[in-house]
Amino acid sequence: MSTIASTAEPRQHLLEDWLDSGSAAADRSITPWMDEERQSALEKVRRLGIPSTKQEAWRYSSLKPLTEQRFSPYPAEETSLTRGDLDALVIPGMDAHRAVLVNGRLVPHLSDLQDLPPGARVMSLRAMLEQEPDAVSGHLNKLAGRGDQVFTALNTAGLEDGLLVSVDPGLAVERPVEILHLSVGADVPRVAQPRHLLVLGEGARATVIERYLSLGEPLYCTNSVLELILEPGAGLDHHRIQTESPNAFHLTGLYLSQARGSRYRGLNLGLGAAWSRTDLVVRFSGPEADCELAGLYLAGDRQLVDYHLDVEHGVPHCTSRERFKGILYGRGRAVFDGRIHVARGAHKTDAHLSNKNLLLSRSAEVDTKPQLEIFADDVKCSHGTTVGQIDPDVLFYLRSRGISELAARRMLCLGFAGEIIDDLAPEPLRDYVATQVGSRLEKTTQE
Description:
Elements: H1 16-27, H2 32-48, H3 64-67, E1 72-73, H4 83-86, E2 97-102, E3 105-106, E4 120-124, H5 125-131, H6 150-157, E5 162-167, E6 177-183, E7 190-192, E8 195-200, E9 205-214, E10 220-230, E11 235-242, E12 249-258, E13 263-270, E14 275-284, E15 290-299, E16 304-313, E17 319-328, E18 333-342, E19 350-359, E20 365-374, E21 380-388, H7 392-400, H8 405-421, H9 427-444
Parallel strand pairs: 1-7, 2-6, 5-8, 6-9, 7-10, 8-10, 9-11, 10-12, 11-13, 12-14, 13-15, 14-16, 15-17, 16-18, 17-19, 18-20, 19-21
Antiparallel strand pairs: 2-3, 4-5
Helix pairs in contact: 1-2, 1-6, 2-6, 8-9
C-alpha cells in the first residue's frame, strides 16, 4: 500500500486509493518520458502529503470532507449511454463542435468532432500519447508540473485520458468547441481525473466551453487539470460552467501561459458540488499580453466554493483583470484568495482585481483575501473587495411598486450577477447560464 505523510487532520484516509491508482497507471507504460513524469508526480505526492489548514493556501478550506471519503477510480469500461441520453443536456440553439467525456474518458460515439476545420484537432490525450507522443512532449506537464500542488500531482500520476485541443497558427475556429464532462452514478464513491492540453498556435483563435455536470445526484470527485498555451498573438475565449451533483467534490487546476500579444478571456461559474476548489494560475512569457479572469459563484445548503488566483506578471507591458462575484445563502461558504505578483522589471504592468460578495442570510460566510505584491515601478495596480447584503431601501422601493419580496430579492440578485453573465457568448450559452443561475436563485431568495 502506498503511503504519504500524515497530517493533524482527523479521520483522513490520505488518499491511498488515489495513490494506488497512480501507481497502477505508472505500471501501464505509454511512453518513456510520460512514465518519468508520472513517477515524479507520485514521489511529489508522497513528499507533500495532504494539505492542512495550517498551510496558508488551505487556511479557510478544510479537506476533511474530501479525505473522509474512499474514492477509487472508475473502471475502464464502455459506457452504455446513447446520444438520446444527452438530448436533455445539450444547450438549445448552440451550434458547436462537441467532445463528450464520461467519467473522465472521451467517448467518440457521443461526440461531434467530424466537422472541425483542417488544422484544428480535438482528440483523446491518451490516444495522442500512444500515437504521436512527440507532438505533446514539449507541452504536457510543463506548466502544471511546476510548484507543489498535490492534487495536480495526483492527476499526473493517475493520468488515464483527457483531451488534446490544438489549433494551427493563423487558424480561426469559428464554431465553439464544447467539452462536456459527464459523471454517471456508481455503486461506490469514484474519482475521475481528466487532463486537458490546449495549444493555440501563433495568431490562432478559438472559443472553448467546458461544462461539468452529472446524471442524477451521485457521490463522486472530479479532479481536473488544464494546461493552456497561447503562442504569440493567439486568442482564446474560455468559459467554464460547473454544475456538478450536490453530493460531488470538484477540484480544478488551470495553468495558463501567454506569449507576446496573446489574449485570454476566462469566465468561471461555480454553481454546483458540495465542495469545490479552483486554482487559476497565470504566467506571462511575453509583453503586450492581455488576460481577463471573471467568475460568479453561488453557495448555499452548506456548500463550500473556493477560488484561488495566482497571476504572475514576470515581463513588462502586460494587462490583467480579475472580476469575481459571489452570492451566498443558507449556510453557504466561499473562499476567495486572489494574488497578483508584479516582478522586478515588469514595468508598465496594468493589473486590477475585484471581488464582490452578496450575503443573503446570517449564516452565510465568505473569507476573501485579495493580494498585490509589486516589485516594479511605473505600474497601474489595484485591488478591492466588498461583502454586503441587499440594500433595504432598494428592496422597499421595489415592493412599493407592487413586486413581492421574493421576486424583488431575485431581481436584485440577478442584477448583481448580470455583470458577469452578460459577458458570455454565444447567446444560447448566455441564456442557458442565466436560466441556471435564476433557478438556483429561486431557492436562495427563500432562505
